[in-house]
Amino acid sequence: MEQPIRIGMIGLDTSHAPAFAELFNDATHSYHVHGGQVVAAYPGGSADFPLSINRVAGFTAELREKYGAAILDSPEAVAEQADAILLITADGRLHEEQFRAVAPYGKPVFIDKPLTVDPQAAERISELAERHRIPVMSASALRYAEALTVSLDSVEDGAEIHGADCFGPMQIEPTQSGFYWYGIHTADMLYRIMGPGCSSVSAVSSGDSDSIVGIWEDGRIGTIRGSRRPGQSYAAAIHTTAGTKLSHMASHAKPYYASLLERVIRMFKTGQCDVRLEETIEIIKFLDAANRSVATGGQVKLNSR
Predict the structure, then answer these.
(1) Residue 16: which H helix or E strand, with range?
(2) What pLDDT is recorded for position 303?
(3) What is the per-residue pLDDT for 304?
């Protein structure tokens, strides 16, 4: 029998830590992800980010007591004991620093959303990955929502996608630079539908609502509608030459996390990433451009500074 990949976790300040450990380590789970086991973890936590630091102790205890993970005192110690790494620290500001610590070990790395909260840091992560010749993948689980997959698979042969509108919550976290905190989810959905190639972005905020409009190089338009009102859910309208398809992300039972981790474990095994790092970096630039558009009130070119 094939031995499971030993997975190390960096960052126990997010609900993703126990959720991912459960899917990998609990063979009785209805959506158990085969092929990996979380064996070691580094807690981390950001003192200026209450949603991070206030959850570290509880999630650390759960990883140790329920899932049997060894709790270690540094990212480097985790990298030494693992075959592959889940860098899931909630604070995107720390991802570059933590990745820099583990990259020399040559292990494949999944970096949880957002890859970073700074396009230049995202570029530096890419350079490090190339230097150490390791596969790196980063994505929101919403990219792989079963409902979205089904909708895209059902696009008629010969039909072309000429636009998309994505909807979802848009909570703001002061330490995570505007749209990065929750906008990454709808942005990843939008890019799953449209693919890379956005050239400019315009965004506006009014009260508890936001609208982001991206224009792709081929003239297609993709939009995001975000809201901080209670009860918001994720959905998408996919516009094709054969008509529009509506996709409600919560309409399927399969957890988003399970669909994501199936891609992650495949990357750990094969070294082949489901989403290229270049596309993820473009998404970070897209969100950066949206933040700058809100601040300036104008259209922002994706590669402008």
Answers:
(1) helix 16-25
(2) 80
(3) 62
Q: How far apart are CA 124 and CA 95, in angstroms?
A: 11
With a cut of 70, which residues of the chain have pLDDT below it? 1, 304-305
Question: Is the separation of the CB atoms in 95 and 111 below 8 Å?
Answer: yes
DSSP annotation string for 29-48: STT--TTEEEEEEE----TT
The b/e string for 183-214 (b: 16+ C-beta within 10 A; e otherwise) is bbbbbbbbbbbbebebebbbbebeeeebbbbb
Return the exposure string of 139-151: e unless at least 16 CB atoms fall within 10 Å of the residue's CB, then b. bbbbbbbbbbbeb
Say what the pTM is.
0.96
At residue 305, the pLDDT reads 54
272-287 burial, b if ≥16 CB within 10 A, otherwise e?
ebebebebbbbbbbbb
Residue 158's SS3 state is coil
Give the model's pLDDT for residue 2.
78
Strands 221-227 and 209-216: antiparallel
Distance of alpha carbon 237 from alpha carbon 240, whole angstroms: 10
Where residue 46 falls (left for φ over 0; alpha for ψ -120 to 50; beta otherwise) is beta
Q: What is the dihedral of CA 192, 102, 268, 194, to 10 degrees?
A: 10
In sequence order, what are the residues at sequence separation of 6 or more whose Cβ sits closer than 8 angstroms to the Cβ of residue 168?
142, 182, 185, 186, 189, 224, 225, 226, 227, 232, 233, 234, 235
**Which two three-digit tokens encode residue 221?**
């338009």
Smallest CA-to-CA distance from 292 within 170, 118, 113 is with 118
Determine how many CB atoms are found less than 10 A away from the CB of residue 113: 25
- Residues 6 or more apart from 265 whose CB is under 8 A from it? 5, 24, 33, 34, 35, 36
| Residue 69 DSSP code | P
- 3-state DSSP call for residue 181? helix
Locate all alpha helices (DSSP H) within 133-218, ordered by sequence: 146-153, 180-194
